[in-house]
Amino acid sequence: MATTTAGPIYERSLLLQTALTLLFLLLIQYLTVKIYRTFIYPYCVSPLRHLPGPKDHVFLLGQDVNQFRSGCPNEPYLAWMRTGPTAPLIRYFTFGNSEALLVTSLAAHREILQTKCYSFTKPKFFVKLIGDIVGLGLVFAAGEEHKKQRKAPSGLFSYTNIKSYVPLFRRKAEELAGLFDKAIGNDGGIIEVASLYSRVNLDIIGLFALGIDLKYLDRPSTFHHCYHEVFEPTTFGAILTALNGFISIRWLPIEANRSFLRTNKVELQSVDPGYWNKDLMLDQILNAVAAVFPRNYYAFTAQGLKPHVRL
Predict the structure, then answer these.
(1) Cis ω on the peptide bond leading into residue 294 (within 30° of 0)?
(2) Is 239 found in the same domain as 158?
(3) ∠ CA(272), CA(275), CA(280), 5° rounding?
(4) What sign results for the dihedral spanned by CA atoms 210, 211, 214, 216?
(5) Residue 292 pLDDT > 70, yes or no?
(6) Paired strand residues for 90
(7) Alpha-carbon Rg of the chain, whole angstroms?
(8) Which partner from 17, 80, 84, 121 sits 20 to 30 angstroms from 74, CA to CA?
């Protein structure tokens, strides 16, 4: 009787020991690969290691911390370009010592965006990072899917159609100038321009893409408030957004995530998909809405500070 019971016990013990050994070997293999990719490959093996680039990386976080601290979407990239104005490519590190390239030459831009545009796709982490905000429409489409989606709005952005909207752009610019005059008179010349720029851009998108005058420039709206919260989150929300590009934490039951989902839901419900595929239409609209924030009011501010510079 003792022999019959010892057999199964011995087998279970052997299976457990084998399973633990396999797990230990897998862990060793995983750690070895990670150490190689993080500390050896970028410095000793990568074909990009000889390219110029910044040296002030934060350990395991690369330049992500420096970009977060800069408070501007153009920094620290502009600073790097000033230190190496003739370099066509600048290499820098991101999270986990992953390599990234800043394209600075016109020839490289032309190849990436035109001649060989379908040979380059958006990084998966980047899609995951901002896909929840801007949707997965034309911005992230690749190959044949990109060609298909690009045809849909081509008439909207034709020269003739854009020219016909010039009076609309002028009218909205005059309305914006009127608000500036009013704010200067009421607040002693101090104006918070970011909100006004984003509101006028939303009005133009509504008329140009949807044929609807949203009139956000005239009055505050729930949509604009949510729009502002999505693109100007709290510090904790910004950290979660950055981490979500590498670790799936967007669905953790915490208040920052709940606020993001609520505001994003309001934006989605404000869009009428019409006859097009609902998900695809929402993605395209979110792409357009995201495009105006925050780069446009940074451009307007830069133009005001340096009026002699014109494109």
Answers:
(1) yes
(2) yes
(3) 70
(4) positive
(5) no
(6) 102
(7) 26
(8) 121
